[in-house]
Amino acid sequence: MQFQIATSSRVPIYQQLVQQVRAGVARGELAEDERLPSVRQLSRDLVINPNTVARAYTELERDGVLHTRPGLGVFVAPVRNDLTKDARKRRLVELLDSFLTEAVHLGFSREEVQKLLADRAGRFQWTSPA
C-alpha cells in the first residue's frame, strides 16, 4: 500500500496516516500479519518527522489495528472484537446517526444515500456474521 499525505489538509499528518491504515485494513489492501514500513523508512519516504509516524503507529497499536514484534517490525494485527455485540451495535448506531445527519444537511435524499452506501460498501472486506 502506498501512503500519501496532503500537507495542505487541515487533518494532522499523523491522523492522515491513521485513517489510511484503517481504510487499508478495512478494504483488504493491508492483510493480517502484513509488515508495514519502519518508522524511519516511512518518514523518509514521505519526508516527514519520524515522531509523526511513531505517533500514528502508537495510536493504531493502542486501538488494536497494529502490533509490534520486537526486532521484527510493525504488523497488521488480527481483527478482534473486544466489545460485546450490543456495545458494537451502539457504537455503529452513533456513527450512522452522525453520518445520516450530515447527509440530510448536505441535501441528499434517502434514496441517494442508500445507493451511495451500497456502492461504497462493495469496496470493503467484510467478515462473516458472528
Could you write a compact summary of the structure shown?
The protein is mainly α. 52% of the residues lie in helices and 8% in strands. It has 2 domains: 13-76, Arc Repressor Mutant, subunit A, CATH 1.10.10; 85-121.
Properties at a glance:
Arc Repressor Mutant, subunit A, 130 residues, single chain, globular, mainly alpha, 5 helices, 52% helix, 2 domains
Textual characterization of the structure:
The protein is mainly alpha-helical and 130 residues long. The protein has two domains: 13-76, Orthogonal Bundle (Arc Repressor Mutant, subunit A); 85-121. 52% of the residues lie in helices and 8% in strands. It has five helices and three strands. Strands 1-3-2 form a three-stranded antiparallel sheet, covered by helices on one side. The two termini are 28 Å apart. The relative contact order is 0.11.
Low-confidence stretches: none
Classify the fold: give the CATH topology of the largest domain.
Answer: Arc Repressor Mutant, subunit A
CATH homologous superfamily heading of the largest domain:
Winged helix-like DNA-binding domain superfamily/Winged helix DNA-binding domain
- What is the total tally of β strands? 3
**Amino-to-carboxy terminus distance:** 28 Å
Q: Secondary-structure element sequence?
A: HEHHEEHH
**Overall 3D form:** globular
**What strand line-up does the widest sheet have?**
1-3-2
Largest sheet: 3 strands, antiparallel
Mean pLDDT across all residues, rounded?
Answer: 92
Assembly state: single chain
Give the structural class. Answer: mainly alpha
User: Whole-number radius of gyration?
Assistant: 17 Å
